Amino acid sequence: MKKLSLLLFCLLVIGLGIYFTIQRQDQAPNDDIIPPPTGDQKNEKKPSTPRDPLQEQLAQMTLEEKVGQLVIVGMDGTELNEKIKNLIQNYHAGGVILYKKNITGSTQLLQLLNQLKSSNNSKIPLFLSLDEEGGPVSRLPDEITKLPSNKIIGEINNENLSYNLGQALALQLKAYGFNLNFAPVLDINSNPQNPVIGDRSFGAGADLVSRLGVATIKGLQDGGVIPVGKHFPGHGDTLVDSHVGLPVVTYDLDRLRNFELLPFQAAIGSGVDAMMVAHILLPKLDDKFPASLSHNIITGLLKEELGFQGLVVTDDLTMGAIVKHYSLAQAAVQAVKAGNDLLLVCHDYESQLAVLQALQTAVASGDIPEARIEESVYKILQLKQKYNLSDRPVEAVDTEAVNAKVRKLLDSFLMPAN
User: Fold this and answer.
1) Is residue 41 scored above 70 in pLDDT?
2) Range of the structural domain that residue 397 is part of
3) Do 293 and 317 touch, CB atoms closer than 8 A?
4) Which of 80, 166, 202, 383 has its CA 20 to 30 A from that of 48?
């Protein structure tokens, strides 16, 4: 009996020892177990880089394809030919500009634009562009209603009319398949002796040009056509036509800030998509290069001071202001170094080849960093995506319907009330 009692006592002691040991282990912290997340930790996710389809597209492009996107070319003739096909298919030109010499009628124009689209073997659609300002600067077929000049619009001085003018321009251009218009003119016509601006300007006052220019830009944008303000930093007070020679503007930056630049600032503030830079020399800003080739004016003034983030476009590099002073190869390379995103080479097939080849060589040699080209190409891809550009053909143009819509937009402003 004593042995049994002793055995039971020992078992009791051992059991109690085990029990208290387990209790102490349960209460002790365990460094191998991760504590449950707090509320903040539950919502915390690892940072991830969002997918950028345009950047992915850019990464797949060859150097030749990238360089080509920076150039808009003109063409000879009124139908697709081997030269323009070569520029589009083998040099990957990013767009085409047409002039009156390329257009004989409504049916022909539609056919030509559809041919240009079908010749494009790239997934990136073409810029299809022209200068359609209204008034004397008009390229569209005679079947299309001619719009009033900016001078007439300025004399009426109605922002709603200017907006409707932009809408009318967009309506006419989109009917054929154009997607980019080198308009409106934002130059202030402050010099009556100016041989190149004149009635292309809304008028002689900065406020007038600013208000009506912005309204026209909005009309074009809302109509689905890319507007290009021009000719930065102001071609209104010149005595030389830059198509022929190099104009010189002697004003300093303070004067420009208080007058010539005001319409361009207004356009930038309104969200204009692109800006054309003039072939004019402003020696107090840059005594070496004209504005279109000047890093000081394009990067320093337009981009950095005025905050413009859209596409910067040269005026036509085959104009007298450039070709009388530079080779096309020199001008093209300097234009990109200065900060231009799009180069216009509107005439002469050999000049167009020279520009494209010079840019390819400059990048391959390291004279222009490839990253600099990619910066411009990315902006071009963004803009083409924003406006939903497409190389789909337009089936037909009902000119009577287009003209009727244009009259409805403008007649109440332009026709005297009965």
Assistant:
1) no
2) 66-410
3) no
4) 383
The set of residues, in sequence order, having a beta carbon less than 8 Å from that of 257 and lying 6+ positions away, is none
Give the integer Cα–Cα distance in Å for 67 and 265: 29
- Which residue type does 65 have? E
What is the sign, positive or negative, of the torsion defined by CA atoms of 85, 346, 292, 227?
A: negative
Q: Is residue 371 part of a domain?
A: yes
Question: What's the pLDDT band for 69 if we cut at 50, 70, 90?
Answer: very high
Please name the amino acid found at residue 309: Q
Kindly indicate the confidence band of residue 417, based on its pLDDT and cuts at 50, 70 and 90.
very low
- Whether residue 238 has pLDDT greater than 90: no
| Structural domain count of the chain | 1
Residue 24 inside a domain? The answer is no
Tens of pLDDT, residue by residue over 149-200, are 999 999 999 999 999 999 999 999 999 999 999 999 999 999 888 888 999 9
Residue 308: how many CB atoms within 10 A of its CB?
A: 23
- What's the one-letter identity of residue 18? I
Q: Report pLDDT digits (tens) over 227-237.
A: 999 999 999 98
Would residue 143 count as lying in a domain? yes
Q: Give the CATH number of the domain where residue 76 resides.
A: 3.20.20.300
SS (H, E, C) the chain: CHHHHHHHHHHHHHHHHHHHHHHHHHHCCCCCCCCCCCHHHHHCCCCCCCCCHHHHHHHCCCHHHHHHHCEEECCCCCCCCHHHHHHHHCCCCCEEECCHHHCCCHHHHHHHHHHHHHHCCCCCCCEEEECCCECCECCCCCCCCCCCCHHHHHHHCCHHHHHHHHHHHHHHHHHHCCCEECCCECCCCCCCCCCCCHHHCCCCCHHHHHHHHHHHHHHHHHCCCEEEEEEECCCCCCCCCCCCCCCECCCCHHHHHHCCCHHHHHHHHHCCCEEEECCCECCCCCCCCCHHHCHHHHHHHHHHHCCCCCEEEECCCCCHHHHCCCCHHHHHHHHHHHCCCEEEECCCHHHHHHHHHHHHHHHHHCCCCHHHHHHHHHHHHHHHHHCCCCCCCCCCCCHHHHHHHHHHHHHHHHCCCC
Amino acid making up residue 69:
Q
Active-site residue numbers? 243, 315
Q: Is the pTM of this model over 0.85?
A: yes
